[in-house]
Amino acid sequence: MNTTGISSWAVDLADVGAIYPFQGLELILLIIALIFWIWWHIVTFRMEFDRQDEKIRKYGNSEHITQAIEND
What we know:
The protein contains three helices and no strands. It has helices at about 15, 25-60, 60-70.
């Protein structure tokens, strides 16, 4: 079954045209991916810091935990 109209790959690909969708958008997609990756790290760091602050409020800081362990 031939869906591209190409019966042989032994031709000059410059004459064939686009051989995959969205050709020419690689740089734009790379920039979008990098922006998403940086955004994801920022959101993850904020969530982890918030979770750590919540644990500190619930259990106390490391000094209080160390004192509780040493007193037992």
